[in-house]
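Ticket #4471: structure output looks truncated?

Reporter: J.K.
Steps to reproduce: submitted the chain below (476 residues) through the standard prediction queue, then opened the result file.
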Amino acid sequence: MEKNESSSGEKSEVNSTASIRGFRLVISLLLKSVWSILNITDNAQPEDTIRGIERDIDFRGFNVWILILAIFIASIGLNVNSTAVIIGAMLISPLMGPIMGLGLSVGISDWSMLKRSFRSLAIAVSVSLLTSSLYFAITPLSDAQSELLARTSPNLLDVFIAFFGGLAGILAGSRKEKNNVVPGVAIATALMPPLCTAGYGIGTGQWQFAIGAFYLFLINSIFISISTFMVVRLLRFPAKELADSKKQKKLRGYISLFAVITMVPAVWVFYNTVVESLYNRRIDAFVNEIVSYDGTEIVKKYLIQSDSLTTLNLVMLGERVPEEISNEWRSKLKLYELGNTKLRIVQSGMEELGEEGTTSKLLDFYTSAQQDMLTKDQKINLLEAEIQVLKGKRLDFTKLSKEVEINYPELLSFNFAYNMHTDFISTDTIPFLLLEWNPETSIQHRTSRQKMLTQWMKAKLNLDTVVVLPWKGRKS
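Returned output as attached by the reporter:
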């Protein structure tokens, strides 16, 4: 009995061990399959990649003029708010070379390449700022369009775009088969527009634009370089010089510190943007779900920010909202986490000072203008209706007279007109038919033919009434 139990235990242990081995084998095969799919070391061309990036680092002659032309194109695109023109300028721009050169040179310990990359990037930035500042200083179109404004407040998302874009760029560049990834990276990371926007700020004296846009360019440049450095080290590109461990460690520390310092403002801006977006979403939910009163319409919604309180101003047109209703709305602000928000209803006729008073006066003017426009619309509708009536009455008299002449040869002349008639109670338009018959036509025949012509005219012109009169226009 004991032997059977011992044998059964050994079999169970063997089966358990076999199951574990089978499970490990499946996991191992799965990991190998995943690695074969995600492996980026195969088909990498380190030497070709280094030569390709190094070739695009230097800025002189041809490259400088291409950059100047690209800056002009991008500046014009920003000026006229044309996305297509801006994208074209980004494809032309040769800015990616020295930026990727920075990351590559650190990754392969090529300090001479690092100096060249810094020098070329400094030249490129200087030329770009000078060109764009000159353009925006002389152009008569000085308004900041949406494409310009979009480059003045970078946040954490711009960091991610630059980093992932840089990864895509260096991975594509390290392949033997070249594709359109690098131009796509140039568009996604948007190196040109921030420099042009910074030039706009310098050229127009709006330094907040210049600082914000240049900060965005700095973010893009740094994180493209960092992603290039990471891939170069991951793919184990051959080092140019023997690595000094202390020097390498110190350099990596500087890079990390510089990256963190660069990210801090972007993180803060991103945090504020998220907080503001969530707050605005709660405001919209409150207005859409709570603020409703028959006979009124919200024509404007705006916020006024003070030190500790935000005022939500709702400009409403129509029936006056009773105070008890507006107080009920205010009591529900806390339900939407808007406890520090004050609700103010602005309506026509309110006696208030400051911006709300001005809004109220504008609302009075708007109400009056709306009533005046309503009256004008009514007049326009009336005139349009009369025009449609006249269009219905319009006829081709030449064609009509030819048909009458063929069908009624007894007529010497044919006249048709609309006359205005009134009995001083109502006014109507009556169609008149004036006929001049051949004197040789008998009265009986004339009467019969006139009746036929009258019925034909009613059917032809879709008329209910036609008055027929004899025409005395000719002398006998």
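Triage note (M.O.): checked the attachment and the full token line is present. Confidence is low (pLDDT under 50) at residues 351-357.
Status: closed, working as intended.
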